[in-house]
Design brief:
Low-confidence stretches of chain C: 459-465
Strand order of the largest sheet of chain C: 1-10-7-4-2-3
Strand content of chain C: 5-15%
Helix content of chain C: 40-55%
Shape of chain C: globular
Oligomer: heterotrimer
Largest sheet of chain A: 4 strands, parallel
Strand content of chain A: 5-15%
Structural class of chain C: alpha/beta
Distance between the termini of chain C: 47 Å
Chains: A alpha/beta (about 260), B alpha/beta (about 200), C alpha/beta (about 475)
Order of helices and strands of chain A: EHHHHEHHHEHEHHEHHEHEH
């Protein structure tokens, strides 16, 4: 099968290891994806600000670049949700959209494979990003009375040594929300700190998520407060990376 | 009258012009919750919402309970034979304002719903509807045979038995009056009755 | 009138903001528990959604049926194109009868119409009888939540208000005692009232009847005592048949407060034999909203408040930050629909988390509507010019891989080499409370370019460094 890898803009520039880990995972399955130099961005920041005309050319680039692929894989729930659910307004019905998968979905639903790293002997708090959870159905939202298997959790569950902590609010939004993080900074920060407090109170050492955008915000807060909680993308955990901790352990508050 | 007639025409025309895409009325829900023991479920739901259900086998039994619990020296009114008494003037029953001091009202319920502890009452010719809300303690009497599992069955019964609003009024009464408007702290007894006692005649 | 500014102020009192968030999350948890015991919950939501959508598509017919049935039972049906007409009808009904003492149960529609002020200016004493509404009325505030009007207040605040206005002893703060005091105060007012005004939860087209749901019994007292009952009803409150109430009454209280049903679900069909029932059907922008393909489903709302309770932004900013009659997710659609200029910040007071859509008992696609509103507002230039321009620039850069790579490299370089006091200075809002990400030396594509055996990479468009 012909697989394309879409690397979101901020991962390309600021979190390249997440893309490297994703590539390693695919190659370990015998997949050699094409990685076109464009598109660089799915257009979500523009679309979410209401600037549809700014998003459209990026969507067009996306469908053109991956037109020949059987699947497109993307290590980001929010970008994948943009492509699958919102590209309709920008490029109309398009097969490429339907064939775009977030990384965990791709492994669970398409490859039906579970990468198994050697060990991850840490207490893990799973941060369920809203787009992944509610738009892509990566798990069961706590407010819905419907059980959907939790794809991210299930991919990680059998890793030797991994220990999931129980959060008091398993799927509350982290407060990133794209430009919201800056435009409504006060509420965004409070939401993020509340997430961190929840993970810390539950005993998490590492926060894992399928969305690096959430982690960029949460990690930014954690590092400012010199909090020991480490953050990792699910691709990195599955690829066998280990967390790096800051030395100080302090409580997080939003003050 | 005239401005309103113009408004009516305007609104109806706009609603017709702007009607969104059609959608068919859905079928009735295929399944709705049922319980192994509806009576027990009704009683526990009623307790959860601040009321109390007592199973009795005769009016005497219920009568003894109310007289033991409430003070019949205070104003009472009963419309269930053999349970309690009416010690206020007949004229008061039709004058809502004069029911203000009523302590106990004992009234019949037509049917009850297990899923939520609600009882269906309809207005009667014998008393003003204010009686349900001005009394301090409301006592409703239902038959165990009239307990249904869920609200769908409830409305089926209302239709079947023609238990429609009478004199303009009917209601589901579920527990005593309550509020949590102050800091989400539940207070039983808001503006209506402070308690609801339900006799289930089996 | 910007949500972000008001929200920032709210969050500044961190302890209070946290308390507000916890109170509302508690209500959301109660809702979850109440829905867990109904196996058919999701089917109920779907059924309710379809009933409401069907009704809206045939609203004219149902409105005509409702009116015929109601009038045949002796109800007087009035029609009001807008808030002003509604208020004038109420005022005239009272003036015609020489009435000046009105009691009112909860009605967001009357909040929308600013009825209280209108009547007060005309010499009518208006007493809100819902406890939460009475509290905010005494404080000259607006309700901060459509179901829990005083959720933003602590017991001490209520105690203070009752001390000031109801002769409560100073320092009284137990909810039980405060409620008892209010009971006596409101009972007095209810007994003295000449007219009672209520909202309408559901209007039944088949019978011309209306249903009002309360826990306190105040709407019932307000209509069982005074002889004149005025019911203000938004035209979208209709449902076709009595039997449909089984669906909505199972959904409403569970969604709103986690109760299986409210204490009273009162069905009014025709006036009291010794009284009058007037129903005022109000448009006030609703027929306009019907015309919108994108947003008309917001009219399916049954005003349960579940979306407010689940919204992480509402919980941490409070209803007053929205400066709209209705706050939270549904308010952030209804507000801009009515007045985009005034409420342009509301669709952005949202992270698009989608929880609101999931809890809505009638399945309004709220977070999709909020996103759709953003493009409408951008088109109407109600999104700030710098924002729009910034996105245009970003798009230009993103479209050109070489420019994207160059810009990215420059950004990473600056972040690594510029002193912190520059990179984290005040124009950088992100950096107020957050660290910027570490800047890697190489982008992913840079790393990729250096990798041997690169035959599958960087195909088609553009050289990549």
């Amino acid at each position: 099968m012909r697989v394309g890898l879409f690397v979101p803009c901020y991962i390309d520039q600021f979190y390249p290891d997440v893309a490297i880990a994703t590539l390693e995972l695919l190659e370990a399955q015998g997949i050699s994806p094409i990685i076109p130099s464009a598109p660089t961005c799915c257009g979500q920041p523009m679309a979410n600000t209401g600037c549809v005309s700014a998003a459209k050319p990026l969507a067009e680039q996306f469908v053109a670049a991956f037109a020949d692929c059987d699947y497109v894989v993307c290590p980001s729930g929010s970008c994948t949700a943009m492509i699958r659910h919102h590209y309709g307004n920008l490029v109309g019905d398009n097969a490429v959209r339907e064939r775009t998968f977030e990384l965990c979905e791709f492994f669970v639903d398409v490859l039906k494979a579970t990468p198994m790293p050697a060990a991850f002997n840490y207490k893990v708090g799973l941060h369920q990003s809203c787009h992944g959870l509610r738009e892509l159905g990566l798990g069961s939202p706590s407010e819905l009375r419907r059980t959907t298997p939790n794809k991210v959790h299930n991919l990680l569950a059998d890793i030797p040594g991994i220990d999931f902590v129980e959060l008091s609010r398993p799927d509350e939004c982290c407060g990133f929300g794209g430009t919201f993080a800056v435009a409504e900074e006060a509420v965004s920060v409070m939401m993020g700190c509340d997430r961190l407090d929840d993970h810390i109170a539950a005993g998490a050492e590492v926060m894992v998520s399928a969305d690096m955008s959430c982690l960029m915000h949460l990690d930014g807060l954690a590092r400012r407060q010199q909090c020991r909680l480490a953050t990792m993308h699910v691709a990195q955990v599955l690829a066998g990376r280990q967390p790096r901790f800051r030395t100080t352990q302090l409580e997080v508050t939003a003050k | 009258m005239n401005p309103s007639t113009n408004a009516k025409a305007k609104i109806l025309a706009a609603a017709r012009k702007n009607a969104p895409a059609d959608m068919a009325l859905p079928d009735r829900l295929a399944t709705a919750i049922r319980y192994d023991n509806p009576l027990e479920q009704f009683s526990s739901m009623l307790a959860a919402i601040g009321g109390e259900a007592v199973v009795v086998h005769s009016p005497d039994e219920a009568d003894r309970i109310v007289r033991g619990r409430y003070d019949s020296a205070l104003p009472w009114s009963s419309f269930v034979d053999g349970i309690g008494e009416t010690n206020i003037a007949a004229a008061q029953l039709h004058d809502p304002h004069s029911l203000a001091g009523l302590d106990v009202a004992i009234l019949p319920g037509h049917l009850a719903v297990a899923e939520n502890g609600a009882i269906w009452i309809t207005q009667s010719d014998d008393y003003a509807r204010a009686i349900y809300f001005l009394c301090e303690h409301l006592v409703l009497v239902i038959s165990a045979d009239d307990i249904v599992h869920n609200m769908h069955e409830g409305y089926d019964q209302i239709a079947e038995r023609a238990l429609y609003p009478h004199q303009g009024f009917a209601a589901w009464v579920a527990g005593p009056s309550k509020t949590a408007d102050i800091e989400q702290s539940l207070v039983i007894g808001a503006q209506g009755p402070r308690s609801l006692l339900v006799f289930i005649v089996a | 009138m910007n949500h972000a500014t008001a929200a920032k102020k709210f969050v500044t009192n961190y302890e209070r903001a946290h308390w507000h968030d916890a109170s509302l999350w508690f209500v959301r948890s109660k809702r979850d528990k109440a829905t867990e015991v109904i196996p058919e919950w999701e089917q109920l939501r779907e059924t309710a959604s379809q009933i409401k959508r069907h009704t809206l598509a045939h609203l004219t017919d149902y409105l005509e049926q409702f009116t015929r049935e109601a009038e045949s039972r002796g109800v007087v049906v009035h029609w009001a194109v807008d808030a002003k007409e509604h208020n004038e009808i109420v005022a005239e009904l009272l003036a015609e009868r020489g009435m000046t003492r009105l009691v009112k149960s909860k009605s967001m529609l009357t909040e929308e119409c600013h009825l209280n002020d209108f009547l007060t200016e005309r010499g009518v004493e208006v007493i809100d009888t819902d406890l939460g509404e009475r509290i905010v009325q005494l404080r000259r505030e607006t309700p901060s939540h459509i179901v829990l009007p005083a959720i933003h207040l602590k017991r001490q605040d209520v105690g203070q208000t009752f001390h000031e206005y109801l002769d409560a002893p100073p320092g009284l703060d137990s909810p039980d005692e405060l409620t008892e005091l209010a009971r006596h105060h409101l009972r007095e007012k209810l007994l003295a009232a000449e007219a009672g005004l209520t909202g309408v939860n559901f209007g039944i087209a088949e019978t011309g009847g209306i249903v009002i749901c309360t826990n306190e019994g105040n709407a019932d007292l307000g209509t069982a005592l005074p002889k004149l009952h005025i019911a203000s009803m938004g035209i979208e409150k209709l449902i076709p048949k009595t039997e449909h109430l089984s669906v909505f009454l199972r959904l409403l209280a569970r969604s709103a407060t986690g109760q299986p049903i409210t204490s009273y679900s009162s069905h009014f069909q025709g006036p009291r034999p010794d009284g009058e029932l007037h129903i005022i059907l109000v448009d006030n922008g609703r027929t306009n909203l019907m015309a919108s393909t994108e947003f008309h489903r917001a009219l399916n709302c049954i005003r349960c408040g579940a979306c407010l309770n689940t919204c992480p932004v509402y919980r941490r900013s409070g209803g007053h930050s929205y400066h709209a009659t209705v706050a939270g997710p549904i308010g952030s659609v209804l507000g801009p629909a009515q007045d985009p200029k005034q409420h342009h910040s509301l669709p952005f007071a949202c992270t698009l988390c989608g929880s609101c859509t999931d809890v809505c008992p009638v399945k309004i696609p709220l977070h999709h509507q909020l996103l759709a509103f953003r493009s409408q507002l951008a088109e109407q230039k109600l999104v700030s010019a710098p924002k729009r321009w910034g996105m245009s620039v970003a798009s230009t850069i993103m479209r050109r891989p070489w420019l994207f790579a160059l810009t990215g490299r420059m950004a990473r370089f600056s972040l690594r080499w510029l002193p912190r006091f520059i990179t984290h200075s005040w124009p950088n809002t992100w950096a107020q409370k957050r660290e910027l990400p570490d800047a890697p030396k190489q982008s992913f594509r840079g790393w990729l370019a250096d990798r041997p055996n690169d035959d599958n990479r960087n195909v088609d468009n553009g050289k990549q460094k």
